[in-house]
Amino acid sequence: MTGVITRATPVPAPGLPGRVRIYEVGPRDGLQNEQGVIPVEVKEEFVRRLLAAGLPVVEATSFVHPRWVPQLADAAELMTRLGPEGVECPVLVPNERGLDRALELGLRHVAVFASATETFAAKNLNRTLDSQLEMFAPTVERALAAGMDVRGYVSMCFGDPWEGPVEPEQVVTVGQRLLEMGVGELSLGDTIGVGTAGHVTALVEAFTEAGTDVDRLALHFHDTYGQALSNVQAGLRAGVTTYDASAGGLGGCPYAQSATGNLATEDLVWLLDGLGIDHGVDLEALVATSAWMAQQLGRPSPSAVVRALAAGLGAGPGGASSGGPLAQSTS
């Protein structure tokens, strides 16, 4: 397509990491927020396309009770369909029952999900701040004993819609307890997208001052107020090299008005390319995948890069298509 630049011009900035690991959360954190249920064969193809695009980690689903997240009720079927490729895809396990299901399928990577605030712990897990961690302890212990890798998520790290701003020290207290349990990597989530660059810097510094190796931290941003890429840059300057992102910007937050979902993986890749930072992802294949998924969902992708590149790369407009299975089922 004439006039469309399909690659960012690399202009490296001093003091930034040379390589970044992208942790793709679209199939789980993105699709769990959909209004309708997406066919399992579409989810399977989505995961396979993302892996083929070079994403090193693709979190596939969650073994949460279907009453709470009906969109992911087909978790076991999805992982079975994925076969050997699925074994390496992380899954979220909210408790020991979820872990049992992951173990039965021979999976190797799991994640647990904690809150940095009392109110969200109560609303999301029906637990107090302390009792949520007590619940996770046997799950983490058993997973490690089985030879699994365990990731820990901490949500509401920058702000809580009920409690307001969240102090870094409070996040460090929760995060360190997860690390002490044996969690290998800690993902710090800006669940409602209110974080800004200075807050990111302060939070990472609070962890390092408390003795946490920055290599054990990951950052998870939502773009509610358009700050996600700015926050990534702050994280890069602080030495963080793992970033969660969602293909096509899928997902959203039910706790914040006008939340626009997760940081789009394509937007992150464009930023990294422009900074000359390696990541191993094929941007064209990723854009094509997100344009395809937008058609399945029957609406445009919120990713700026997908909208800019999809048509030029022959991947369609990156927008809605009345023929998508979800569009038909919810019309």
Q: Could you name the key traits of this structure?
A:
331 residues; alpha/beta; 13% strand
Give an overview of the whole structure.
This protein is 42% helix and 13% strand. The protein contains 14 helices and eleven strands. Helix 9 packs parallel to helix 10. It starts with 20 loop residues before the first strand and ends with a helix. The C terminus is likely disordered.
* Average pLDDT reading: 91
Secondary structure: helix percent: 40-55%
Largest beta-sheet characterization: 9 strands, parallel
Strand content: 5-15%
Helical element count?
14
Regions with little confidence, pLDDT below 50 for 5+ residues? 321-331
How many β-strand runs? 11
What gap, in angstroms, lies between the N and C termini?
33 Å
List the helices and strands in order: EHHEEHHEHEHHEEEHEHEHEHHHH
Based on CA atoms alone, the radius of gyration comes out at 19 Å
What is the 3D shape?
globular
Strand neighbour order, sheet with most strands:
2-1-11-10-9-6-5-4-3
Short description:
This protein has 331 residues and is α/β, with parallel strands linked by helices. The chain has helices spanning 26-30, 40-52, 75-82, 84-87, 96-104, 118-125, 129-145, 168-181, 197-209, 228-237, 265-274, 283-297, 304-309, 325-330; strands spanning 21-24, 57-58, 61-62, 91-92, 109-115, 149-155, 159-160, 164-165, 185-190, 217-221, 242-245. It is built from 14 helices and eleven strands.
